[in-house]
Design a protein that fits this description.
The chain is α+β, with helices and mostly antiparallel strands. The protein is about 60% helix and about 15% strand. Among the domains are: about 80 residues; about 140 residues, Histidine kinase-like ATPase, C-terminal domain (Heat Shock Protein 90, 2-Layer Sandwich). Strand 11 and strand 12 form a beta hairpin. The two termini are about 40 Å apart.
Length: about 375
């Protein structure tokens, strides 16, 4: 995990804990403060009732009706039955006993969600002042909900930030890998023509009578280098593009042109071409890279005196060669440096990498198997 991601996570956890703790402290403090204020109000009322010479019930009714705090007033008979004369608090207290009334006459009691203070009026009777804390609890619950929601949003922001960081890092890493592959591809592909050019350059001094021939070979290899660089640049550009212009391509016509090129290089090569009409709509550059590399693979990895067979059906292009083939088909034929076949022919298997990239971009399936000719059978299935 990147340092930036770790810092974001740690900072978010710290802020969440700090916010949660501060919110919890605030909620508890606020609740206790309001409950304390209600108890003080009930104690003041009790003191006022005790010092007054007025009729206790009449005074209690006056206090309950004029109170700014929602309050209920109950009248308690000598058999402990309670009748509510004022019910502004929505209290549910119905069962009382002498012991409870005695304790409530000395201090404010908490019964469920109600605060109660009794005042004995004489002859076993009493009045009960009741303030409900339900509204406080409701408000506290709302505040608590907001705190939890804030922390949830904070966590979601943290998750989103980490995902964005991972996505950014992934893009950077992908770009770095693409650049590394491009450099590797270019280095390998250019190695052969550069070696040829150097060889002919060294022979120019030793064989001045062959200057024209050697210069022509140097020119050919220079053109080949230009084509290689152009091809690799196209692949690199395709890695950056999601959409590429597609055109109608006659596969049989294109393969015929490639066969002509092979016969110029290897005039003794026996090539069998069996074709049905097959036209696809795809980017030409990708099709060229795919087919050219498969044909080059068949040509390079098999002796000139062995056959190549090319078959085109309505959905497939099959290329088979009569080379030494492989003892077994590798599980990952697109491995960038295919050791099995490259070791036998001196190549590096880079063509497989180019085939893989172009096939993936085209959305076609390429499979490899052993050919009846003795070599490798490459099969492209077009959608």
């Amino acid at each position: 995990m990147k340092l930036t991601s770790r810092l974001v996570i740690v900072l978010t956890i710290f802020i969440s804990i700090a916010t949660f703790s501060a919110g919890l402290f605030s909620v508890i403090t606020n609740h206790d403060q309001q409950v304390s204020n209600y108890k003080k109000s009930l104690n003041v009322i009790h003191a006022e009732m005790k010092s007054s010479l007025e009729d206790p019930v009449s005074l209690a009714l006056l206090i309950a009706n004029q109170s700014t705090i929602p309050m209920s007033l109950g009248f308690i008979t000598d058999d402990n039955d309670i009748t509510y004369l004022v019910d502004n608090a929505g209290t549910n207290i119905t069962k009382l006993n002498k012991d409870l009334i005695d304790r409530g006459d000395k201090q404010t009691l908490s019964i469920g969600s109600d605060l109660v203070r009794f005042f004995k009026t004489g002859k076993g009777e009493a009045v009960a002042f009741v303030i409900s804390t339900k509204e406080i609890d409701k408000q506290i619950g709302q505040i608590w909900g907001k705190i939890l929601l804030f922390n949830l949003i904070l966590i979601l922001i943290c998750v989103a930030a980490v995902l964005l960081i991972f996505r950014r890092d992934s893009k950077i890493n992908s770009a770095a890998r693409a650049m590394q592959e491009f450099i590797g591809d270019a280095s390998h592909e250019l190695k052969t023509p550069l070696t040829v050019i150097r060889g002919y350059s060294e022979m120019l001094g030793a064989h001045p009578e062959k200057v024209e021939r050697y210069a022509e070979r140097i020119n050919i290899e220079s053109l080949r280098m230009t084509e290689i660089i152009d091809r690799l640049l196209k692949i690199a550009a395709l890695d950056e593009k999601n959409k590429v212009e597609a055109i109608e391509i006659d596969i049989a016509k294109y393969v015929k042109s490639q066969i002509e090129d092979i016969l110029i290089i290897q005039p003794k090569r026996e090539i069998t071409f069996l074709s049905e009409p097959l036209t696809i709509k795809a980017p030409l550059d990708l099709v060229e890279i795919l087919i050219t590399n498969l044909l080059t693979n068949a040509r390079v990895h098999s002796p000139e005196d062995t056959p190549i067979q090319i078959t085109i059906t309505d959905k497939k292009l099959i290329i088979e060669d009569g080379g030494p083939g492989l003892s077994e088909i590798p599980d990952k034929p697109f491995k960038r440096f295919d050791e099995s076949r490259s070791r036998e022919t001196g190549g590096s298997g880079l063509g497989m990498s180019l085939i893989q990239k172009s096939a993936k971009k085209l959305g076609v399936k390429v499979t490899f198997s052993k050919s009846e000719l003795g070599g490798l059978k490459a099969e492209i299935t077009f959608n």
